[in-house]
Amino acid sequence: MTLGMGLDMNMRDRIAVALKEAMRAKEADRLSTLRLINAAIKDKDIALRGEGGGDTGVGDPEVLGILGRMVKQRQESARAYEEGGRLELAEKELAEVRVIEEFLPRQLSPDEVTAAIDAAIAETGATGIRDMGRVMAVLKARHTGQMDFGAAGPAVKDRLG
Asked: Above 90 in pLDDT, residue 105?
């Protein structure tokens, strides 16, 4: 994290500060990725306004979700490029992932994911597969940006099934 960014700043402010710093430092690739992040957030703001979501725009949980999706898309693209022998394009995607991940909280280890799932199951009193939605809602509320919910879903299902 760079000097200008405190933990008390919201995600938008942290990204704006990073964007200004990248501009000043003439870091073209980093600046490009930060602009992509801003564009994705603004797209979501516009979509929310269209749905009657008001003028406040997306908050930190939604920004974390956007960033998580951006990371996943770039990882999939990098894999496809590697399989196609386009290593320079794969490296470009992975460089973007590294910039985006600067704004995400630390990822939970597999053991921490298991513990979080167990805690969510205990908290919701889940006893069967019908309770999966409630368990996932607790996980998403507490761990957005910290775990892959695509992988957590089947793990929750196994524990409840």
From this structure: no
Provide the mean pLDDT of the chain. 89
- What does the alpha-carbon distance between residue 36 and residue 42 come to, in Å, rounded to a whole number? 10
22 and 31 Cβ atoms separated by less than 8 Å = yes
Q: Is-above-0.70 flag for pTM?
A: yes
CATH number at residue 144: 1.10.10.410
Residues 90, 59 share a domain: yes
In this prediction, residues 43-62 reach a mean pLDDT of 80
Same domain for 129 and 68? no
State the pLDDT at residue 151: 85
Instruction: Please give the Cα distance from 62 to 44 (Å, whole number).
Output: 9
Domain span at residue 68? 11-101
Look up residue 120 and give its two tokens: 């969510």
Alpha-helical runs (H) found in the chain: 11-24, 28-50, 60-83, 87-101, 110-124, 132-143, 149-160
